[in-house]
Amino acid sequence: MSSVTETPEIVLARENAKKISNIQYKEELGKGTAVKDTPEMERVRKNQENISTVQYRKEVGKGTAVRDTPEIERVRKNQENISIVRHHCKFCFLKVVKGKMSSG
User: Fold this and answer.
1) How far out from the chain centre does Cα 56 lie?
2) Binning pLDDT at 50, 70 and 90, where does residue 104 land?
3) Which helix (H) or strand (E) holds 48?
4) What are phi and psi of 65, to 5 degrees?
């Protein structure tokens, strides 16, 4: 078995591979320190949220009104009919149940 001499390039490559490793990185990183939210940090966080909201609204724009297409109108009427039927069926069911309970 022949051994390969460890050139500086091989040593460097091995060290880089260790540093790239997620496990090795976490071991070197440590656990860190928890920091309490200071009033300044809270102020900055709220400002950042406000800036994000303003930017989002600018990007979205005012929008364009879309007229109701025949398909949208058909779906809306179907939903109304389904709602009426469900309400009617629930009402009829309660009426039947109450009728049986009161006559029994």
Assistant:
1) 16
2) very low
3) helix 39-60
4) -70, 140
What is the residue type of 18? Answer: K
pTM of the model: 0.28
User: b vs e for 3-41, b when ≥16 Cβ sit within 10 Å of the residue's Cβ?
Assistant: eeeeeeeeeeeeeeeeeeeeeeeeeeeeeeeeeeeeeee
Residue 39 C-alpha from the chain's centroid: 28
CA atoms within 13 A on the CB side of 31: 2
13: tokens are: 């490559």
According to DSSP, residue 56 is labeled H
Looking at every residue in the chain, the average pLDDT score rounds to: 78
Judge whether 29 and 23 are in contact, CB under 8 Å.
no
What CA–CA distance (Å, rounded) separates 10 from 15? 9
Tens of pLDDT, residues 37-86: 888 889 999 999 988 888 777 777 666 777 888 998 999 999 998 888 88
Q: Supply φ then ψ for residue 89, to 5 degrees.
A: -65, -40
CA angle 39, 53, 51 (to 5 degrees): 50
